[in-house]
């Protein structure tokens, strides 16, 4: 069973491109969801905001760094000041930053990968949880990766960070379920988005795009997860493209 998201409020990070952009635009096009959207790239953020407003959504845009807790504190305050509530928290922001053999991964880049993917997710959830508890409702969706389930050379640090997001999300579900708050995990396969341009050592995936998973696939699944009526919880969604070989170790 599904319900309309009209009148709901969604906070979405990483909306400048890829999955986050597609999801924000899907929410706007389908139900004119009220949006608080975050990205560090001001121009890309503005393009997403323009598209969402054209579909009829009220949008608050925040240019911010998700490795800073102040970004989430501002997002929460903007949500309450403008809309009085938060229904959905969707933590897309993340990235590999660098893919290389482990001896080429220094402590500085390793910490940046952990901060961008894991620490940001923890800070976001920690910031919004008191509001969700006060409301007695809400849905959180965190984002892992196929690298959490399968292994590829050079992806070790990113994979470790995403596996930790998985473990964090599962534990958070057990904490928040008694308060009426749903927590789920999206596990995306590889997709040719802006992901590659932001990571050293990552080239576009070479496959038939017709059979590849694309941002709109993830947007559809997240929309359906959020539209599920009270009582049902989607704890995990794994979406791979037919073009990607995920067999092996």
Q: What does it look like?
A:
By secondary structure, the protein is an alpha/beta fold. The chain is built from six helices and seven strands. Helix 4 (about 105-135) runs parallel beside helix 5 (about 155-175). The protein starts with 8 loop residues before the first strand and ends in a 10-residue tail after the last strand.
Quick take:
The protein is α/β, with parallel strands linked by helices. It has helices at 18-31, 42-54, 69-83, 107-135, 156-176, 215-227; strands at 9-13, 34-39, 59-63, 88-91, 138-143, 181-188, 236-239. The longest helix is centred in the middle third of the chain and has 29 residues, at 107-135.
The SS-based structural class is alpha/beta
Count of strand segments: 7
Q: Biggest β-sheet, characterized?
A: 7 strands, parallel
Biggest sheet, strands in spatial order? 3-2-1-4-5-6-7
| Gyration radius, rounded | 17 Å
The SSE string, one letter per element, is: EHEHEHEHEHEHE
List the helices and strands and how they pair.
Layout: E1 9-13, H1 18-31, E2 34-39, H2 42-54, E3 59-63, H3 69-83, E4 88-91, H4 107-135, E5 138-143, H5 156-176, E6 181-188, H6 215-227, E7 236-239
Parallel strand pairs: 1-2, 1-4, 2-3, 4-5, 5-6, 6-7
Q: Which features does this protein show?
A:
249 residues, 6 helices, globular, alpha/beta
